[in-house]
Amino acid sequence: MPVLTLTSDFGTKDPDLAVIKAQILQALPELTLVDISHDLTPFDLEEAFYVLKNSLFNYPKGSIHMLAIDSESYSKNRPILIKTNRYTFVGNDNGVLPAILEEEEYQAYYLDAVPFDSFMKVHLEALVHMEEEAFPTLMTTPADDLKKLKLPEPELGYEENRVKYIIPQVIYIDRYGNSIFNLKKKDFEQWRENRKLNIKTPVDNITYLSQGYNDLKKSSHGNRRGQYGARFNAFGYFEIFVNGGNDKAGGTNILLGLKKNDRVLITFE
Questions:
Q1: What are the structural domain ranges in the chain?
Q2: CATH-assigned architecture of domain 155-268
């Protein structure tokens, strides 16, 4: 039974999510509907990229991925359908899907829609036609000029042709209040060259990388809870964390004052 994943910035307070789920289940009752996230910050495309890039490719071949971020259709935000050799994606032309699929070969198509159509109506109709093997007639306009989300890159400083410092930027704050930056482990190790490091945060310096959340030097009171550190997370992104924290009462966003787009300074010696 095919899987359809749904990701949105609808949240769970309003009826929007319930409506789109009901429409999906009525139109395609044979699909297994899976939620990825509905708690994305509204219209935050970078946040959507981070969540989707690190989740979508774990699903079985033949899965359909529906992205309802900035989901109203209009002339500069046209609905699109993208096919790869493993998946089908539907969303709008806001740059997120091409950024996620940067390393993949794909075919993209514009879907005809009534301006300001809501609740992903045309996307759902396309999936219904696809199941009925009638969708080639629907995809009459190849999309060769899709927008592509431009992601921020860490700033680098050099000394004698070696990277002396890195200034990464917060791109996502997770449920635990951990601040995740636009710095990948592979790049970091290449720039670090096995040198000692210092990470300057708004409150204090961090001088080593932890392997996990409990891999911290004990504080004077012998408790690691509430201590902060730095590591590379399971997806390979640089992260500053608070042991036992959360985004409402004690994460890096509160204890260290870090918020989206903030930067820290990493120096090598």
A1: 3-142, 155-268
A2: Beta Barrel (2.40)
